Amino acid sequence: MFVLENGAKKKGEDPRLQAISQAIRVVPHFPKQGIMFQDITTLLLDHSAFKDVVDIFVDRYRDMDISVVAGEVISEKYVLEYGTDCLEMHVGAVQHNERVIIIDDLVATGGTLSAAIILLERADAEVVECACVIGLSDLKVRSKLNGKPLYILVEPRQVENGF
Ligand SMILES: O=P(O)(O)OC[C@H]1O[C@H](OP(=O)(O)OP(=O)(O)O)[C@H](O)[C@@H]1O
Ligand SMILES: Nc1ncnc2[nH]cnc12
């Protein structure tokens, strides 16, 4: 699934993932020293790569009886790599037993996804899976997700890529 550091592809990898990864701009040491900020604005501007992101998610979830896509989400505070934040969701935005996928651009600590899961479960929705364009397939992150599967397209980029 992931693009390796040397640009080689893992066996069986979707050929679209390399272009998706390369369209992400890395901003070293932003907003703090030591953070390799993964800026997806360049991915959003790359119509072909962004279409591939949407197509991959649509293909994955089209037959899973999903009724809600929670792109941004009562309120739940959480901790990020570089501070704390809070997610909010309209009361009534999700009905009991609705099947939800949570989509975000990136997972780092898993705090945001964890807060989103807590919010949605408080509304009695069923969170089917979390999906992110960028993230590490990290056990520490997965352990925060209350057993929910995490689907990731590409690893964070480590180097500035000339944008
Ligand atoms: O896994 P975590 O440690 O919670 O980090 C992931 C979150 O960090 C970024 O959001 P951020 O709040 O920085 O701002 P943005 O949504 O405006 O990009 C990103 O979009 C995720 O939502
Ligand atoms: N390295 C990173 N790049 C972009 N968004 C983030 N959110 C948390 N860590 C991040």
TrEMBL record:
Residues 56-134 form the Phosphoribosyltransferase domain. Keywords: Cytoplasm, Glycosyltransferase, Purine salvage, Transferase. It catalyses: AMP + diphosphate = 5-phospho-alpha-D-ribose 1-diphosphate + adenine. One of its GO terms (molecular function) is adenine phosphoribosyltransferase activity. Pfam families: Pribosyltran. InterPro entries: Adenine_PRTase, PRTase-like, PRTase_dom. GO terms for cellular component: cytosol. The keyword Cytoplasm applies. Its EC number is 2.4.2.7. Pathway: Purine metabolism; AMP biosynthesis via salvage pathway; AMP from adenine: step 1/1. Its main location: cytoplasm. It is found in: Cytoplasm. Belongs to the purine/pyrimidine phosphoribosyltransferase family. This is adenine phosphoribosyltransferase. It comes from Glycine soja. The lineage of its organism: Eukaryota, Viridiplantae, Streptophyta, Embryophyta, Tracheophyta.
